[in-house]
Amino acid sequence: MTGIERPLPQPTLASAEFWRSGADGLLRISHCADCERYFHPPLPVCPSCRSRAVALAPVSGRAVVVGFSVNHQTWLPRFPPPYVVAVVALAEDDRARLTTNIVDCDPDEVRVGMRVRVRFEQLEEGVYVPLFEPDPETEAAEGPGPLPKPRDVRARPMASPRKYEDRVALTGVGQSRVGRRLMVDPLSLTVDACLAAVADAGLDLDDIDGLSTYPGASPDGMSEGGITALTEALQLRPTWVNGAREVPGQIGSITAGMLAVAAGLCRHVLCFRTVWESSHGALVRSGQWTAGGGRATGMFEFRAPFGAMSAAQWIGCNASHYLHRYGVGREALGAVAVTARAGAARNPEALHRDPMTLDDYFDARMITTPFGLYDCDVPCDGAVAVVVSAIETARDRPRPPVLVEAVGTAVLERLSWDQDTLTHLPQSHGPSAHVWTRTDLTPSDVDVALLYDGFTFNALSWIEGLGFCGPGEATDFIAGGKTIALDGDLPLNPHGGQLSAGRLHGYGFVREAMLQLRGDARGRQVEDARMAVVTAGGGVPSGAMLLRRAE
């Protein structure tokens, strides 16, 4: 790859040796002396046997491509497309994987199962980036490489027969104006949504004794400033607050509110989520807002040097693995996108309402394979707020409460985009398995599905993870969109989802579930909707909820 300028990683006390290790042309990976496992990135404890006898050890440098995405979108100004972002599994241990670039071949020649070998590119003194090139000799001798076996995921049984879900209800919901590049103070959007939610619950601001949001203060268009900003704006005096980022998905902040109410800390928790990505992006492009720079840190330490800057690329690697493993095309993804647009056409609040056909889907420009334009959700500005109340207060509210049947929060996979689940969206399996352990209901009891669709593949992963069909069966289950249509057996995101209504980052699905269960989803109401499933997240801790109509 020539003519590019790679972002520099920030070596840490844990990773500096890894970045230095390519100086002699040898790839070195963390290795456990007790159970012989290899793993990446460096950890002080073996992820299999929890031994502390771990150290970097040289490996052959041979690997197999287990997922890839050919990037056609410019994410970095000095890293021009096209280029291949890939996840490769090492020959010594397919549980040890690296996100990297495949170089020295036409991007269209890369495929899952391709044998590759390492080569290094020095970025500066002490930083050698491992890239991979085709390994035709090994492929000729041994054939395409094997794929890692999917891991069985099972949730623990309930820790207690007492369910916190039974002690709470969702009593109010509100939404601000939603749009593209509104150029409105995001805190003003938060206030609009919160005031609407509190009024919807028939409460006064003085009744609010808890606040919960995600992800707290964030400077990149993903927050209005968090708990501190809203408390100051509305002069609230909460007993309990939460503004954590590491919760079970974006809706994990609502789960946290439920736990606070069930524990008796609060009676009414105001939960809120605000995004202003669209305006933030416009300010950055115009030069009015200076984006962060410097070396790549955190999870981007092992991604940015390869131009892997977007979740589209990371999830695209898993989607390519899925399509290869199960021998299917993009038709199911297209059906999800077309169904979302049909829902948006019935929703006057949706951002994209123009008709879309499957031909339109396939004709759209490619973003990063296998995702085209309509596989990706729509950044927007907007806020949603939800009131969680103690169950004994629910009947005093002016609107029908929405009850909570079960919540799934379990982490049953590595919290990693590339080191564990390849077949589906990472972290969709754990909450899916967990939610069914907290109820006697089954997937057949669900009337409407509000499934996180940051990308079409996300929704497909949740459909399979929740057990509406088996692994690899979504194409047949979706049946070209018939099953997930408004009048189908499993209506999916009747409001248009994030794909067409706008990326309200999880909370929009909770709002739509509440409208559906109240019978308030005008123009798109699922007939006699009594039970809804809601999901959010992916890659990071994620969550699932079963919500039901109060009878």
How would you sum up this structure, described in words?
The protein is 25% helix and 21% strand. The protein has 14 helices and 19 strands. The chain has helices at 16-20, 136-142, 186-200, 226-234, 252-262, 277-286, 311-326, 331-345, 358-363, 429-437, 456-465, 474-478, 497-501, 507-518; strands at residues 27-32, 38-39, 54-59, 62-71, 83-90, 97-101, 115-124, 127-134, 168-175, 210-213, 240-242, 268-276, 366-368, 371-372, 381-390, 402-408, 448-450, 531-536, 543-549. Helix 8 crosses helix 11. The radius of gyration is 24 Å and the shape is globular.
Features:
five-stranded antiparallel beta sheet, 19 strands, 551 residues, nine-stranded mixed beta sheet
Provide a concise account of the structure shown.
This protein has about 550 residues and is of the alpha+beta class. The chain has 14 helices and 19 strands. It starts with 15 loop residues before the first helix and ends with a strand.
